[in-house]
Amino acid sequence: MLKHYFKVAFRNLLRNKTISFLNIIGLALAISCSILIYLWVQDETSFDSFHENGNNIYQVVTEDSFNDVIQYGRSTPYPLGKVISGYAHEIKYVIRFNNWFEKLSIRYGDKNFNERVTFTDPAFFQTFTFPFVEGDEKTAFEDPLSVVITEEIAKKYFGDSNPLGKNLQITSENFTTNVVVRGVIQNLPHNSSLDFDFLLPISLLNKNISWINNWGTIFLKTFLLLEEGAIVPEVISKIENVPSEHHDWNYKLFLQPFKDLRLYEEFKENRTPTGRIVYINLFSIIAIAIILIGCINFTNLYTAFSSRRAKEIGLRKVMGAHRKILF
Fold this sequence. Notes:
Elements lengths: L1 H14 L1 H29 L11 E10 L2 E5 L2 E2 L2 H4 L7 E9 L4 E5 L2 E5 L1 E4 L3 H4 L4 E4 L10 E5 H8 L8 E5 L4 E10 L12 E4 L1 H6 L9 E9 L5 H8 L2 H5 L5 E6 L8 E2 L5 E2 L2 H28 L5 H9 L4 H4 L1
Parallel strand pairs: 7-12, 9-11
Antiparallel strand pairs: 1-2, 1-13, 1-14, 3-13, 4-7, 4-13, 5-6, 5-10, 8-11, 9-12, 10-11, 15-16
């Protein structure tokens, strides 16, 4: 019986080529477009979901009023990281993170490249989840003259040899120093908001550049890992006026969940987050609309030509077909 159903269906397709073609192509395009949009939405919403402590990581955001216009920023001063943990016991780690403004010259033997360099605090790997291929995340930054690199960079400079313990010379306009490779991590996943190739202790900046200790110079990101169960509004109330206690520039601080950075990278008035989420919602609605229109068109076209199958249905009834078989 099942074979008979398929045979009749195939004959009907051949008998009504134009209608069948329009129906099948229309529905297939609708499904394809919806699937592609779904995959894009899934990719966008997956950003930073791989961090084990993701639910407890927050970025410090600044709120400043200029000519009665509220402005929001993600850059913070270097000294903030030294003092902010003293204002709230719920803060477990403070992570300052800075992709340096210019590419620095990095030399190993006869290899010399201009590379992006990133500075951060020693607790970076206790806060964020970036698996190590070589070395130990707990001791990688014990030495202030150390560096952690990605697998791609290790291959670029050292080939197939073990990079641990090898020296790299880093040269900038402000300083020249030799650092030792203390760790190699897996290449960063594409859905990571943090992007870096070379990770160096931020104490190198403090040692070689004097202006970074100015509260008025905001040039790096500050992340906080809060203790499990910390009440975020209470933490914000404790830290929001920290800058005004150390500098005459009276701006406030608040916290944004790290997992929201990709979708909510901007703020409206009253700290209302917005950004890519607008496009995520818009395209999700479009995907649903496309699939609904495709289904409606498919049904309408077949319903319009259902009268052509009235003879077949009548014959089946005469032969004793039940409602279930006709359906």
